[in-house]
Please model this.
Amino acid sequence: HPFALLVEHVQAFIGSDDPDTMHFEDAMRQPDRAQFIEAMKKELQDHIDRKHWKIVPLKTIPKNKMPLPMVWSMKRKRDPLGFIIKYKARLCAGGHKSIEFVDYWTTYSPVVSWGTVRLVLILALINEWHMRSVDFVLAFPQAPVKTDIYMKPPKVPPDFLIPDLPEYSDRFHFVYKLIKNLYGLKDAGKTWYDFLRKGLIKRGWQPSIVDECLFTKNNIILVLYVDDAVLISPNQLLINHKIRSLQKEYALTDDGELKDYLGTRFKRHNDGSIELTQPRMIERVLKLVGLDPSRNDTKTHDSPADSNKLLDNDPDGKPRLQKW
Model:
């Protein structure tokens, strides 16, 4: 459908033209560069503390291996209303320089479908189940790397100390040999997903045959989108127990009761109705097409969906083999 194609292209353009996502050079020209530098210090120290790599002399790496560049991905993380909640500086591998069948093989990694997210979270809201947000801290590097990967030291501002390469000259004579998976590698997402899936199955979680990023265990559901997860259950104590259990094997934070997920705010009203909003996304789309609602010459009005239309299942479709 032409409109569907338009929406797809608009969403792709928004993702590539996000003013809050930038490279190192761009971030250093921003008025809030100091916050990005602090985020860089924290990111680098976290990798060193967790022993995600080791230092090796440049001249010792194999001839068939070339050290990949290490690059920064900077981002202002906002809530659905547009307020900055965190500055992120993520160290990534320059995977565009890697060689297929030398540095990586298969690359596909699944993520939870938006249909699954809406279905499960609305079921939870209707039934008044508890929903807890969980964030896997530095998720990809929690998984071991699958092959030998060597990295050049990252670009940093003048007078920025790299703790494990304290001498400036060290940056030209030593490289990082990865021990753990790193963002930016061609197969980084798959390596992380395979590692987490294997660990969850070992702990008794069962992946859904409908959506392989939805896991169930007894009376609890886990929805996973890369490193953002939601635990859902009628039993709050069961959620607490499962989070503590997962923290024994994975570095993760309990972010409390779920309010926002994947840029969408879920809200239950007193009359029992459920509201899903994406105000930040809507504002960006309107500005992109020249319909900025803050301008006096632009008028907006609500266009609700038809409440009289019933949505039925496909009578000729295949039956589900499990309830989730």
Remarks:
- Residues 33-49 form the longest helix (17 residues).
- The radius of gyration is 23 Å.
- The longest strand covers residues 84-93.
- The mean pLDDT is 88.
